[in-house]
Write a structure and sequence with these properties.
- By secondary structure, the chain is α/β, with parallel strands linked by helices.
- It contains 9 helices and 13 strands.
- The strands form 4 sheets. Strands 1-7-6-4-5 form a 5-stranded mixed beta sheet, sandwiched between helices. Strands 8-13-12-11 form a 4-stranded mixed beta sheet, with helices on both faces. A two-stranded antiparallel ribbon has the order 2-3.
- Strand 4, helix 4 and strand 5 form a beta-alpha-beta unit.
Amino acid sequence: MRRSVVLGAGHFLPEKCLTNADMALIVDTTDEWIVERTGIRQRHIASEGETTSMLATRAAQAALADAGIDANSIDLIVLATATPDHTFPSTATQVQAALGITGGAAFDVHAVCSGFVYALTTADNFLKAGSAQRALVIGAETFSRILDWTDRTTCVLFGDGAGAVVLEAQDGQGTNADSGVLCTHLRSDGRHLDKLYVDGGPSATKTTGHLRMEGKEVFRHAVTNLAETVEEAFKRAGITAADVQWFVPHQANRRIIDATAKKLGIDPAHVVITVDQHGNTSAASIPLALSVAWHDGRIRKGDLVLIEAMGGGFTWGSALIRW
């Protein structure tokens, strides 16, 4: 059975960093208020000229270096973002050009905070089908560009950044002991647009718009939906929470992460948390957290890693990966 095996991971963060104290100078808020409700202490913000494609390219270069392979061996790029450089062409093609790749395919996936899970699932299916041999899967965002910086309930939550993994199709035995992506589950429910959305777009308003969110409703749906899709993954793989070495959830809110881990019975010591340092970086948050935990030695070869996310739409999903 063909498996999509992780060869390397990398990430990139803008140099500019806003602490909660900095945010208190912009809107009516405090460090205590933000930390208590979200767990966030700081976030990175893209400066002038730091585009989504630039962040994505730097993360991709780091992942390629970690994998020890040449960019020209990549024949598929799937990039998850809700903040592309342009309406078109895709940001993935800009990364492709920046890396000097002239073959294969490159395209974007848009599922907001679930974007990386959707992109990983897409790439995994391409590799398993034999349509590609090596893939770059990237999550990159400049969410600061679509924030309403007068809305203290949303602007304190988000940050910018990018993360990437390199996948290669390899033969496995078809068991849970195989390296690579073991299973993925994707879901969506378009009835909930008004709970998390951007109030603009080329067709609707001819503007970029700003992010709008009903935080309590998102929280309620997130814990239920995420637990459901993870339990499906456990059932499909024939495992339990005790078999998971690392739980790497979307880094949206510490309270959502803690509630989901508790509902699933996952030991808090096995949960990777980066939301305190990066804020919610949407599609970039999972690959960012994966890269951080891989490079600091927490995630090791052979570890079973669970990822999950929920984003606007609503979209949500999970994946089990044997690192």
